[in-house]
Specification:
The protein has 280 residues and is of the alpha/beta class. The protein has ten helices and twelve strands. 37% of the residues lie in helices and 18% in strands. Helix 8 links the parallel strand 11 and strand 12. Helix 1 crosses helix 9 and helix 9 packs across helix 10. It binds 2'-monophosphoadenosine-5'-diphosphate. 2'-monophosphoadenosine-5'-diphosphate binds next to helix 5. The site of 2'-monophosphoadenosine-5'-diphosphate (ATR) has 14 residues, from helix 5.
């Protein structure tokens, strides 16, 4: 039976999710359809009630609805509750169940592309928004030695640390403190929007004190190589952009809906082709 899947966000016109998920359905010979719905925040509740009434089989949730959608769902899974945000909803026999695949998407991409084992790694996360929360909560559960968070607004970093029940060593830092302490970390992750198109000449922190053999990640994928990643590469770091995280969070959502894991390389290629001339 043909089913409908979707994305709710505001705005969603430029989302890569429809093209990626529709290609996954074709990969498995499925007739299902994925459509992006532009839902104004004032209409969020009605949209979710409508999704249920229409029997939409599952949907993704993006900015700015990842937190507010939670109160309209029937159940939230444990990790999504800990993160405090939902990006994937499954319609299970008429009940809407919320999950979060963003953090796991990042960690899978990191292991795949840059660092097979995270045991004993010291990690610095720059930023303390929704994306940082997902990444922090997932990494906290993956055997790392410590995760520090640097943010312009330090109390947001403190909140993430105190909301996490896992016993991982952590402290909050100012952006200036982080710049001076870079040599203490194995992996440095930018989760802020600084450096995203069109502000491509900006960096969240200076990398002047970056030591040798570091892994530097940016969750931005447009441009594919932010100024932050370019500077890190110049200093000999292994770099990872946000494409892998985007594709893996989508693949993990697809798996929740279909019980099948799509081909990651094909998904990446589809997004790359679509980004085409828009990347810098
Ligand atoms: P998301 O949910 O996508 O992570 P968010 O919750 O708006 O988005 O978080 C954005 C992050 O980028 C925050 O850490 C924010 O810092 P503040 O908590 O101080 O607001 C950070 N950020 C965005 N623009 C910034 C800027 N110009 N300078 C420093 N930090 C910035």
């Amino acid at each position: 039976m043909q089913k409908l899947y979707g994305l709710i966000g505001y705005p969603v016109e430029h989302s890569m999710s429809p093209i990626m998920h529709n290609a996954c359905f074709r990969e498995f010979g499925m007739m299902h359809v994925y459509h992006a719905f532009n839902v104004h925040p004032d209409h969020l509740e009605k949209a979710i009630v409508g999704m249920k009434a229409l029997g939409v089989a599952g949907f993704n949730v993006t900015i700015p609805h990842k937190i507010n959608c939670m109160k309209y769902l029937d159940k939230i899974d444990e990790l999504a509750m800990k993160i405090g945000a939902v990006n994937t909803v499954v319609n299970e026999n008429g009940k809407l169940i919320g999950y979060n695949t963003d953090g796991l998407g990042f960690v899978k991409a990191l292991k795949d592309e840059a660092c097979e084992t995270l045991t004993n790694k010291k990690i610095l996360i720059i930023g303390a928004g929704g994306a940082a929360r997902g990444i922090y909560m997932t990494l906290a559960d993956s055997g790392v030695e410590r995760i520090d968070i640097a943010n312009r607004t330090i109390h947001r970093a403190d909140e993430i640390i105190s909301d996490c029940s896992d016993s991982v060593q952590s402290t909050s830092l100012s952006l200036q403190q982080a710049e001076c302490a870079l040599k203490n970390y194995d992996i440095i992750i930018n989760t802020t929007s600084i450096g995203m198109y069109p502000h491509i000449n900006e960096m969240p922190i200076s990398l002047d004190h970056l030591g040798e053999k570091k892994i530097v990640c940016d969750i931005i994928y447009n441009p594919l190589e932010t100024k932050f990643l370019k500077e890190a590469k110049k200093r000999g770091a292994l770099i990872q952009n946000g494409l892998g995280m985007f594709v893996y969070q989508g693949a993990l959502a697809f798996e929740k809906w279909q019980g099948k894991f799509p081909n990651i390389d094909d998904m990446k290629q589809i997004v790359l082709d679509k980004l085409g001339g828009k990347t810098c």
